[in-house]
Amino acid sequence: MMNQLAVSCKLRLEPNSIELEFKPGDKLQVTCFGGTKWRGVSRQCVKSVPNGLMLHIERIKLRNTGLYTCTDGDRNVSTYVFVKDPEHLFAEASTSIHGVEGSPATIPCLLAHPEASNLQLFHHRNGLDQQATFNFTFDRHRGALIYNLTPNMDGKYFCRGVLNKRTHDSSRFTLNVIRVVTELPDITVNVEHTLLKVGEAFAADCKANANDFTVKAYWETDKPHGMDNVELGGAKLIIEDVGYSSLQVLRIRAVTMADKGRYTCYAKNSFGRRNVTVNLDVIDRGYVNITFHGESPVIDALAGQTVTLEVHLESYPALLHWGWLHEGQPMNTSDHRPTCKTNGRGYECSLELLRVKVKEHGLYTFYANNSDDYNSLDFQVVVSDISKGSPKSENYWTVMVTISGIATVLLFAIIVIVYKYKTKPRFEIRWKVIETVRDGNKYIYIDPTQLPYDDRWEFPREHLVFGELLGSGAFGKVMQATAHGLLKSDMATKVAVKMLKQSAHSSEKEALMSELKIMSHLGHHINIVNLLGACTVGGPILVITEYCCHGDLLNFLHQKKNDFRMWNTRLTEYQNLSFLENIIPPQEKKAEKGDYLEMRPRSPGLLAKTQSHDMTPLVSKGITGTGLKSDDTLEEEEDFDEQADRQPLDLEDLISFSYQVAKGMAFLAFKNCIHRDLAARNILITRGRVAKICDFGLARDIVNDSNYVIRGNVRLPVKWMSPESIFHCVYTVQSDVWSYGILLWEIFSLAETPYTGMRVDSCFYRMIKEGYRMPSPRFCTADMYDIMLSCWNDEAFERPTFDQLVDLIQVQLHRDPKKFLQTPGTSCFI
């Protein structure tokens, strides 16, 4: 069965075979006579023997399957080892593969059995596993060989084969195709021409952008003494939202006359380079240069006319003073209009003599000075007197009619602009704090601007180091940051920071401050994104909250969708997740409104339960009620959590997410807070698959998000809203329950869009009024669908409360997992 190797006697293997077969647990011993090295083999598995090296593995395992090569430096000899595990046709291998466009690549599906047949390669595209149609061959020692990579071959792959009439699939591999660059990089500099005095500082930033990571920005000069007086910052590679960029900063602390000249910024990538040149002019002292507009400085005018004297001015450094003199005396500016408009180093200055009088003839002088120079320019104005009558009258009425017409046009334009501004959809903070009145069926909104703010939440903004962008909207954004000294003086904490963009209006600034006050008013709970601190003085408002490493629930479900299974044998790997028996002890029928329960495996130092009524700022009292742990505990938990988070998603996880969100909403309801935008996109997931309720608010781009539809002058998430909210603008805890039912549908459909394929139009509104309800999602149990339907009751007060929802879902968590599968239409997912 085994083919004999044909190698010289100076380099040979013993056993002398191209392929070797073993069972798991067997001892592997292969001696290479004449060899000096086994490639890619740990030194612990190689022993020296007379005239060669022995490859030795005491108890061979499935992962040891593969090609082993011995070399003497000039020649190679190889043997392929099959470890015939009866449960696996393929061995595990590296799951990340990189290849260059146009080059070959190998998907390392390593066979563990030589008897394998019907080998196929599958490519996951458009949400489906499809058999590969491009040109490839299957090598039993290496895997699937792809000959010519193209960009559309990016994605996930797996191999399939048949052994003993059973079909086996390999692990999934991710192939990243590196594009071949065919375009020059883009280049920008922060200045194209500049003028400086001797001793002033010069700075210029050179930035290159391209679609490949080889992009580089750098400065050069044609000056004889080169870059002797120049400081160059190290070129940094920056990963942008699209592509890559490189930045190099050029600095001269104090310019001299020798620094005058051309500095060229180059942008280079693997395709080529392009450049932009900056011209630096250096002067000994500043100047003021004045020139007049027109052909002559002598102006003839009739009495009663309006005369304009205009000059062009260039100054470096900037002007300190300017003005007009009449016959050497300062002018009465209440009768006339002097103006001066700047444009870089240039200025356009004028003097408008309104209805000039005969006595106002004479010499007019414009003067200007900066810190280094003074200059002036003279005009001679000649005013001719005319008899009373038509000329003056005609000029007067012409001016009046012109002014009236211009004023009318300006007034109309202002009215249009104000109307557009008032009717433009504006940002509105979604979370509202309410207060019930009368019999408990009426309520009023509490103005969040009237809520108190404790300045002990303040955190020094200089202790924040910002990282990547997490989310962005029209007026705000959320940045990842590291806060130094937030919890301990010697500890750095990863946080999320919400802030405004420069385009924000005063209303958005007030909204962000209101959001900060509401979060500080609520206090802490494990299932909401908790406030950690804030910066409200000495700069823009920054709201510091917990950072959730897995992003929002919608994307988390999308990412895990392909690996979903209805139930998972990994339950035995969780010490405290035997359907949460340790999370929900038998004696605890329901957690109090101020408590939280951690939905993740037990790890050393785990805080099982924390009161959440304490609203004292973290920055003033240390780690309290946030779920944050000591350094040692964090390291142990993060290692355990990361291992658990890599597990596939199953039905238990979906019910766990549902339970946690219900707990968080019960807490908000207890605090008289309504959310008004409860959806999977506003639930964040952190380590241990803990779900936290949030509201991206200002940092969500609702203008370009199809989930938000314009009604009136606001954008609303109509598909998640209750009928009373859509048609009567009524928002209550009961309307949040309706939205929670839509969220359950998102969870158990694994992030499908609610009312799939339906547009929000008059037909949609009519269907909601007539009682249409979505069918059960694909991965939902009958009991969970009953809970959804109860949330979508037409009568708001017939819907369950969040406390009741916690109880209902808690019952689901205590069931035998196999009972989840006794639902029509779900057996195909087992």
Automatic annotation (TrEMBL):
PROSITE patterns: IG_LIKE, PROTEIN_KINASE_ATP, PROTEIN_KINASE_DOM, PROTEIN_KINASE_TYR, RECEPTOR_TYR_KIN_III. SUPFAM superfamilies: Immunoglobulin, Protein kinase-like (PK-like). Its main location: membrane. GO terms for biological process: B cell differentiation; hematopoietic progenitor cell differentiation; Kit signaling pathway; positive regulation of cell migration; positive regulation of receptor signaling pathway via JAK-STAT. It is an enzyme of class 2 (transferase). The chain crosses the membrane at residues 396-419. SMART domains: IG, TyrKc. Residues 185-277 form the Ig-like domain. This is receptor protein-tyrosine kinase. It comes from Eptatretus burgeri (Inshore hagfish).
